[in-house]
Amino acid sequence: MSEIAAKAVVSRRRLRLARIVPYLLLQILIVIAIVLGLRLLEPRDPDGFAVSEFSLREAGTTRPVTLPHFTASRYSLADPPLYSGKFLLKRDGANTTWSVFLPRFSNGVEVAVNGVVILDSRHDPTANRPDRNTPEIAVIPASLLREGSNDINVRLFVWGPLLGFLDTVYVGPDAALRPAYETRTLLFVTLPVVFSAWQSILAVILAIMWLMRRHEPVYGVLATAMVLGVVQAFLTPPVPPATSSRLAGVLLSSAPIESALIVASAVLFLGWRWPRYGVLLFVPGLIVIAGGLIAGPPLPRILFMLLGIPTVGFCLVLMAGIAAYAVLRRQDVVSFALGCAATIVLTCWVHDMLSVFEIMPNERTFVSRLSYSALLIAIGAGLTWRFARALNQVDSFAGQLVARVREAEERLKTSFAREEARARAAALANERTRLMRDLHDGLGGQLISIVALSERGHEGATITDAARAALKDLRLVIDSMDDIGGDLMLALGSWRERAAMQLRPHDIALEWRVATPQGLPLHPELRPWHVIQIVRILDEAVTNAVKHAAARHIIVTIETRDDGEGPYGVISVADDGRGFALGDDGEAAGASQTARGLRNMKGRATRCGAVLDLNSDTSGTQVRLQLPRVFPDSDVAAV
User: Of 244, 247, 298, 533, which sees the most CB atoms within 10 A?
Assistant: First the structure.
């Protein structure tokens, strides 16, 4: 068992090495490419028009210097360094427009030609931020130029903890200097603005995603970091000696907070839990902000140099480590993208730090903010990849769902067909049972009576009457099977003919009254067994009038009534016979045969959902059948 475990450990180590070694080699290649790219792709200035030999007057002393040159940092603008030099204007260039081109400086400059100021960068706040690398160019008025030697003075305004820096000054024909200026403007002014606009769009998208998915805080954290980056890009502080608000200084110094938020979003984006001690990453940024709110400038700049910049570097190292660990564990697209972006930004940050501390002489081009776009690309690629993966999962789930729905539909169709077959079989069985019951109760009893009469030798008239009764029951069963479309009046029309034939031999007149024009309302739910129960009730009422009441006249009344809840039909059969006495329970008193017949009539009415009322006195008997508004679907009352 121990040997198997050892082999498993060795296998895991080999797998990790197979993952991490190519990744580290890729990061090394990225570092080499960045270093070479910064050297090879650096904008080329027109060296033929360089003015690099100047005399510097600073702190009451004058000394010769060669540009590029660093000067001391200071927080007072009372005695700015003054660079004085000369340039030559040849006769063939007298009719050409000349300009002064400054590729790089910090923080502000004032340029004078032959004692006249032609450029003051302090009028453009965006040109005085050290991280902007903003170039400046100014056209020299022709009236100021003179053939031969011309004086040029550059006054350098320095504020903040950074050392002052003045790059080589170029003076020459505007057509020769303008392309270099436009190239630097494109790289260090236009592109950062484009990236910042892209960052603002990304911040809006992330904020919307967070509002729609509150359970995923990574989007809210990223949106906050993007907003801070946009504020730093577009918010420019006023140039000294103008006073700036403390809030502006704080927002411009919020880079460590932004870096900590980026690290937090990376941890959350990779699906890990943010550790409790992770809040310590925000402490330096909070100290910078607190110092800015309490003391105001220049304290935020000093704190930013001492705490903010190291925090940004530490966050970049942490990002690179998190990405490497994610590659070691997961090896997915997001981990590779974040790792490569962190390496690019970290390399550029190291380049900027070497420039700040003069380890790289004659260099002061900050590229960290420009390289920050690589991190935006990585975040956008990660979000796009995650979104595409989610769409693929949704499509896969939708395909599975469609397949399952189809399977369920097939099962439901099979189940519906099976249930329909069962319902059809049950309906046929119920109809068969009903027919058998009706034939047994009616025609069967009549046939037995005929057989018994024949065996006893009764006269033919008695047997004939029994056969007629049997034939009537058979016709009743057959008529009940006809489709009358819910119109009970059709069935009652057939019953009227049979009732008239039954009453004619007994000299009993049948009067038919339809009190309402429509007769009875239509009932789409009417079934044959409903019809046969109603007809048997009417048959029983007529038979009782013939056998027991000695009536001479029978009135059948049909009408539709409406009590506000809906129409319902009423059928009444009244005779002028001698009547009979009713008991307290509504049954006939004294005649068991009559009582049993009335119970059967009420039972049939109940099975149809109808209500049967009986009134009888010496002037005759009335049977009133109130039909339901909706007939029941099943014969449950008969169970």
Answer: 533
Which pLDDT score is estimated for 637? 45
The chain-wide mean pLDDT, for the chain, equals: 81
pTM for this entry: 0.63
Closest by alpha carbon to 535, among 597, 596, 491? 491
Full DSSP string of 224-260? HHHHHHHHHHH--PPPTTS---HHHHHHHT-HHHHHH
- Using left for φ > 0, alpha for ψ between -120 and 50, and beta otherwise, residue 12 falls in alpha
Residue range 353-378: average pLDDT? 78
Cα 259–264–265 angle (5° rounding)?
Answer: 95
Instruction: Note whether 612 and 537 are within 8 A (CB).
Output: yes
> Distance between CA atoms of 146 and 137, rounded to whole angstroms?
20
**Each residue's pLDDT tens digit, 197-237:** 888 888 898 899 889 888 888 889 989 988 888 888 887 77
pLDDT score recorded for residue 242: 64
What tokens were used for 450?
């005929």
Residue 120, classified by CB atoms within 10 Å of its CB into exposed (0-12), middle (13-18) or buried (19+), is middle
